[in-house]
Write a structure and sequence with these properties.
This protein is of the alpha/beta class. The protein has one domain: Rossmann fold (3-Layer(aba) Sandwich). The chain is built from five helices and five strands. It is elongated and about 60 Å long. It starts with a helix and ends in a 5-residue tail after the last helix.
Length: 164
């Protein structure tokens, strides 16, 4: 994960920046990262993507004099071809991991990329645009299903008598 997600992103960014600097033209990089809040069971990819966010923020400042902007998009539950790798129970729960109560589409992410990379995002650099239907403010995402210890704690909370 570290080599592919973090190092791979770094090498892609460096290659693009060197090319643009050599040509004397501006550029815009939009990295796609995993939404950080509430994503459990994949600590290794969260760590790698946190690194991508950190390096994107740093080089956004360092490369600004070269007219190179760097931003990130953090998608939530997006229904893509890979959706089918998850158990049916997880597929059915994913749309309820955000207040809009739906899964996003690849087009939602494409539009965000167009916004950040194009002229509309010309004064934006070093930012993470979260495209998750408000999921970062909502709750939890369990990519491998909710562990029993957590489910039991949740049931305990839900089963408590309301003091009011």
């Amino acid at each position: 994960m570290i080599n592919t997600n973090l190092n791979g992103t770094w090498h892609m960014m460096q290659t693009a920046a060197k090319r643009w600097c050599g040509l004397g033209v501006p550029g815009s990089i939009v990295n796609i990262v995993v939404v950080q809040q509430g994503l459990h069971g994949v600590a290794h990819t969260r760590a790698a993507r946190a690194g991508v966010i950190a390096v994107s923020e740093a080089v956004a400042v360092e490369w600004a004099p070269h007219r190179i902007r760097v931003n990130c998009i953090g998608p939530g539950a997006i229904k893509t071809e890979g959706w089918g790798v998850y158990p049916r129970s997880v597929q059915e729960k994913y749309p309820r991991t955000n207040p809009t109560m739906r899964a996003g589409s690849p087009w939602d992410i494409a539009e965000a990329c167009i916004y950040l990379a194009g002229p509309t995002g010309g004064f934006i650099t070093g930012e993470l645009l979260t495209v998750d239907g408000g999921g970062q403010h909502w709750g939890e995402i369990w990519t491998n299903g909710k562990p029993e210890y957590f489910a039991a704690a949740t049931r305990l909370w839900d089963d408590q008598d309301d003091p009011d």
